[in-house]
Model the fold of this input.
Amino acid sequence: MDVNRARTAFGRCRPWQELVRICLSQLDGLAGNANAGIVFMADPTGEMVDDILFHLKAETGIEQWIGAAGRGVISGANEAFDEPGLALMLIRWPDSDIRLIETGGVIPEDGDGLALLHLASDTRF
Done:
């Protein structure tokens, strides 16, 4: 996988295990040297986020995942709205360009929240 070349997958069904299997089968080993994953989950899939992330990490070998959950997801011409759905993107970025920041405790667990972080590309930490 070239730097900045992404692989994508989409699925909608129940249970979540089948949903993840469908998405991973579309990637069919294409994770290659991807070092980051982006996952979008449509409700009620988001309720299983910990299980889904554990499974994605184990199956792809990718440790760094970011994403979101909401009422729906769109991937290309596909969509899942008010039904279980999953959209995945695997990408390879230069290792020096990736740094995930732990947000535990920043967004309240008992309510809606939003965290937005933007840094200039030359920011070093």
Remarks:
- The chain has one domain: 7-95.
- The chain has a mean pLDDT of 80.
- The two ends are 27 Å apart (CA to CA).
- Strands lie at 7-12, 36-42, 65-70, 72-75, 78-81, 85-91.
